[in-house]
Amino acid sequence: MKIFIDTANIKEIKEALSLGILDGVTTNPTLISKENRPAPDLLKDICVLVSGPVSAEVISLEAEAMVREAEALSKIAKNIVIKVPLTAEGLKAVKILSQKGVKTNVTLCFSPSQALLVGKLGADYISPFIGRLDDISAEGMGLIRDIKLIYKNYNFKTQIIVASIRHPMHVVEAAKIGADVATIPFKVIGQLLKHPLTDIGIERFLEDWKKVPK
Ligand code: G3P
Fold first, then answer.
1. In degrees rounded to 5, what are phi and psi of residue 3?
2. Catalytic annotation on 83?
3. In CATH, what number is assigned to the domain containing residue 53?
């Protein structure tokens, strides 16, 4: 499973890169707004650091305007992937962008029926938001299972990015299902790594090492 980081924060991206496990970055308007910088400059800096896909979202609601925005965003760097919302206009934009060779990530997916259309259309990525479903007492991970099955049945090539991840078990479950990508907040990447028995084990080894004659 590929690991993307769900952030627009340069420090977090650098830290995740230093671990050697990072395959890409996803941003959205909310994440960009936290950085207090013009989006093109910020995205350019991210793309200098990361050679894998970097998702940047359009904010227009009409297909033609989305395509215009996508064209401007694509000029920032070769690895920019255009995030479009899962609406009728978004699907129209994906069709046009695919014909132009622009990679797309269809975001704000909350149902298998939405995902079926995106797979049929052949977008490069789909982003089902599992945490936001859990937040309203639905089973987010069930959506990933459904999409995985549908895409397998029809050999759809669209890659599933498990998004809106809240905790490490979301990542583990996504990997068990065989999702293509998990886009993970920085804090959760740290949580994936930690285990109290590892820390206790290191402490004990260091204590015992002191007893070894020098
Ligand atoms: O980037 C999209 C998604 O991961 C957002 O997550 O935590 O705002 O539901 P969240």
1. -115, 120
2. yes
3. 3.20.20.70
Flag whether 214 is in a domain: no
Residue 102 lies in a domain: yes
Q: How many structural domains compose the chain? A: 1
DSSP state of 158: P
The position carrying tokens 């305007």 is 65
Compute, in angstroms, the gap from residue 129 CA to the centroid of ligand 1. Answer: 7
Containing domain of residue 32, as a range?
A: 2-209
pLDDT tens digit at each of 214 positions of the chain: 999 999 999 999 999 999 999 999 999 999 999 999 999 999 999 999 999 999 999 999 999 999 999 999 999 999 999 999 999 999 999 999 999 999 999 999 999 999 999 999 999 999 999 999 999 999 999 999 999 999 999 999 999 999 999 999 999 999 999 999 999 999 999 999 999 999 999 999 999 999 999 9
Closest ligand 1 atom, residue 183 Cα: 4
pTM higher than 0.90: yes
Distances (CA, A) of 52 to 4, 90, 108, 183, 208: 9, 23, 22, 13, 43
Question: What are the φ and ψ backbone dihedral angles of 163, each rounded to 5 degrees?
Answer: -120, 170
DSSP 86: S
